[in-house]
Task: structure prediction
Amino acid sequence: MSSTRARVSLLSIGDELLLGEIVDTNQPYIAQQLLPLGLTMAGSETVGDEMDDIVAAFKRALSRADIVIATGGLGPTDDDLTFEAVARTFGVELQFYPEVMEQMAARLKRSVESLGGSNLKQATLPKGSRVLKNDWGTAPGVHFATPENKHIFLMPGVPREMKGLLGERIIPWLREHFPCDTCIAIKKLHAFGIPESIIGERCKPMMQAGHNPNVGTRVSGGVCTVRLVAHAATVSEAAALLAPCEARVREALKEGLFGEDEDSLQSATVRALVERKKTVAMAESCTAGLVASLLAEVPGASAVLIEGAVTYANEAKIRTCKVRPETLAARGAVSAQTAAEMAAGIRERAGTDIALSVTGIAGPDGGTAEKPVGLVFYGIATGAGVETLERKFLGLDRNLVRERAAMQGLDLIRRAALR
Amino acid sequence: MSSTRARVSLLSIGDELLLGEIVDTNQPYIAQQLLPLGLTMAGSETVGDEMDDIVAAFKRALSRADIVIATGGLGPTDDDLTFEAVARTFGVELQFYPEVMEQMAARLKRSVESLGGSNLKQATLPKGSRVLKNDWGTAPGVHFATPENKHIFLMPGVPREMKGLLGERIIPWLREHFPCDTCIAIKKLHAFGIPESIIGERCKPMMQAGHNPNVGTRVSGGVCTVRLVAHAATVSEAAALLAPCEARVREALKEGLFGEDEDSLQSATVRALVERKKTVAMAESCTAGLVASLLAEVPGASAVLIEGAVTYANEAKIRTCKVRPETLAARGAVSAQTAAEMAAGIRERAGTDIALSVTGIAGPDGGTAEKPVGLVFYGIATGAGVETLERKFLGLDRNLVRERAAMQGLDLIRRAALR
Result:
């Protein structure tokens, strides 16, 4: 990794973000858009609508970065302070920009004279600003070069306006003025059913600090994602660095590997079904439609998902899946035998290649020493017969049990499709 | 508001956040939970998994706050650096905490001896740490008091573990050690089916800056939430300020009002069914189990949710809901007539008081000029007969159409239960 790469810091300004009223999706969006430019992300920060805090935040951001990209605080109201904060940070005056007023008037289809004081405020920028024309809203974007030749970019916080200004005004400028001296190649690999700690041990040598490619793991919903980021002088060198490392990670993930990059467990499951020309149905008790709903998130799922049954009540299990009342009486609704009969029953009803059943105890009530909250049985029925699986998702609340149980159900469908 | 209130800064640690691969929902959650404590939010920051950056971020956070709450970087892998970063920040050693190892072993139902080096790492904390027992995962929470008597709290980034540690370990401690010198009373009211702009107009006088209680609105998933925050010297004064304002907001929300504070549309729907002793079944096409799954999120849903049918394929609509093939041929699967027959059919099959059907075009394909992506028909069947509703969720992607469609379905069940 070259140490001469320019560093970027992001700054979000607004009480509504700082107080957690809305989730900031601008920072992750900007970070993802900047990634291919080969700049280094130094950090990102959020401050409220307080002048002193905003000035301090700009100083902090500039102390660790060459480029600061800030969003928010450009509106017409009294708590919009970003222009003034930048002016104070550098001891420059605010200056009226007639061109901004004209652009606002044109956008609002009004005369300049008819615009009010709040628009005047939006057209009054730190002296020395270069205006970034905003074709997506009224507040102007601003590029301000500091005396130390660092660069501040100011954008509205409205995602649509931010996206327009970033893509059309800022990224082209950065590409020209900070040409990439290192090229980046990124690969993400996703696995299900292997603990992160085991993946970490298998990939340990590649996860050392300074290793190129840089390798990291994260877990979400039972899916472990390994991310590889290679840096090199050229695209082909970066790809060449990535390839052997990727092969080793694939080996470490083994049969748990289900997809790469933008794949999800649900999209990989639908893809497996489509590729193998297999149809699926499911009978869900504790997950109550979540497996079906996750599959239906994937465009094209209708080609493989025939029918789902949410058999929450025992009478529904009997009616729709032909579970025998004796089984429910002798083994209980949460049992391997009930799961097996549910899977066989829904497969026969729907006439599919594969059928999944899920029955478990999501909690918070209903658990016993023998059958604790988090206990889930699966049935997977195919032309070869019915198999069952017992899993325990312990220590989780009701909806995490259901979510994890549904993800495991998807993986069972995926593996059955590939057999 | 007193200016002596303690200041809090949040820090999120992780490349996946800094690089924008995942959106950080922890910071807004923590900020919202801290709100009633009357602390001042100084700012929040995100850094990647680089030792120098993390150390610098802790120093920055401590320079502007008395309390720093950090998430992430406590995992077992080599890129989890938070404990070491805190130790470096204060020049203290890392120390092995046997109690943490024992807690991890108990949680994993293994012996201490069988745990690997990655667990040893998770049990090695900055010297002087107070362990916050994590009953929601393996990595311990940590409370570290600095030489300047400031306080650092470290939690895993996994939302479930963070929420447990924050609510059970950190907030009670903060409440005791940073008692609030101004009292805050908060009320949230939730409505469905009324546009935010109309609510904003009706509540306009209360939404002016400086109004006490402070009143704000936000929208998520079709639910509009109005939040009222009253500040006063005593709890009873704050409550007295809140009461008349709350009454006016309730009046503004009218029949759209479904709940308050921690209520969700799903919990309000289950509550309406339970209170009115009514059972429900549903036949879902485009939502594919999402309505059933949302209801099942609520503990106790099993008392009212009898059966759901995911009738994705036309043959499933015919088989399970007795939709007439002629209806499908003449009107199409996405039509008011099909919705009506689905609702009547699933109600008869399941023998419930109320039945809902949902059929629509989620996209991205399948839309036409006459039946665009986002068009959804509902049937709601009760003892009084079957009604249908047509809604258009335009300009949304596949899963937002499905999500919004499912929320509308819940509201139809809720209103039917209350009739």
Q: What stands out?
A: The domain at 265-418 of chain B is CATH 3.90.950.20 (Maf protein). Chain B touches chain A through 91 residues (CB under 8 Å).
